[in-house]
UniProtKB/TrEMBL annotation:
Database matches in CDD domains: TPP_TK
Keyword annotations from UniProtKB, A to Z: Thiamine pyrophosphate
GO molecular function: magnesium ion binding
Source taxon at top rank: Bacteria
Keyword Protein biosynthesis in record: no
Matching InterPro entries: THDP-binding, Transketolase_N
Domain Transketolase N-terminal: 13-266
The protein's name in its UniProt record: Transketolase
Length: 279
């Protein structure tokens, strides 16, 4: 896919998130929208995966460490063909395969149960080490949120990845500057993030995490040196794509009115060049 096509896919994925929120009446929209460009770029232009064979041993692995952003992964997995898009309409129901946090036992394409914040990087490092030990050329990608960085297990995982020179591991840090309790700088300031990962022995780069070309460029950078893991500090906007929610704490967990949901859908459809749907 070219850049324009990937941008369109990201918009369609955002519409899928709104489809789930319509079904479930609420959801973690802010973080899902801040990282969804990364998730889209990975699944449609980077990851070696096959929706018809999600357990292919030679696949690349993707872990969403910040599991409350699961709506982004569900939206893209559906677009990529891992499961029927009709399943999105079950979000929020008792029998759904799309729980609030990803569950590897319920949905194809999910590699691990995540959302106990701070665990994803360590799991990803273990996967990367295991793949290398098995002589498997698969790569592991993970997305962390800036709000989960204070968890100490992140830095144990970072140490392991550096010590074992896991060049097959790439961690995107979704820095949208907000978490459930407020601004990350006020709750627990972890800046300078890039310098911290660099001090742990990681190669680092900082990008606009809502720009497709920047995201793809960071993957090329990560591939250029297999001797160390790569941390991509992705500066993003919470709720990116919905003008009246962007950069707001209210978007972290959104319970929209019918009018707000229609306005959000209309804005995204207009942005993607689609006809505004009628209820």
């Amino acid at each position: 896919m070219n850049t324009r096509e990937l941008v369109t896919e990201a918009t369609l994925a955002r519409l899928n998130v709104l489809r789930m929120i319509r079904a479930g009446k609420s959801g973690h929209l802010g973080g899902a929208f801040s990282c969804i460009d990364i998730v889209t770029a990975l699944y449609f232009a980077v990851l070696r995966v096959e929706p018809s064979d999600p357990a292919d041993p030679d696949r690349d692995r993707f872990l969403l460490s910040a599991g409350h952003k699961a709506l982004s992964q569900y939206a893209v997995l559906a677009r990529r063909g891992f499961f029927p898009e009709e399943w999105l309409d079950t979000y929020g129901s008792v029998s759904t395969k799309l729980p609030g946090h990803p569950d590897m036992h319920k949905l194809p394409g999910v590699e691990a149960n995540t959302g106990a914040l701070g665990h994803g990087l360590a799991i990803a490092a273990g996967m990367a080490l295991g793949l290398r030990a098995a002589g498997n050329g698969g790569r592991v990608f993970t997305i962390l949120g800036d709000g989960e960085l204070p968890e100490g297990s992140n830095w144990e995982g970072a140490s392991i990845a550096s010590h074992h020179k896991l060049g097959n591991l790439v961690a995107f840090i979704d820095v949208n500057d907000l978490q459930i309790s407020g601004r990350t700088a006020d709750v627990m300031n972890m800046e300078p993030i890039a310098d911290k990962f660099r001090a742990f022995g990681w190669r680092t780069t900082t990008i606009d995490g809502n720009d497709i070309d920047s995201i793809l460029g960071s993957v090329r950078y990560a591939s250029s040196d297999p001797s160390a893991p790569t941390a991509v500090v992705a500066r993003t906007t919470k709720a990116k794509g919905i003008s009246f929610l962007e950069g707001t704490l209210a978007s972290h967990y959104w319970k929209p009115s019918a009018d707000e949901l229609r306005a959000a859908e209309s804005e995204l459809r207009a942005a993607s060049g689609l006809l505004v749907g009628k209820e």
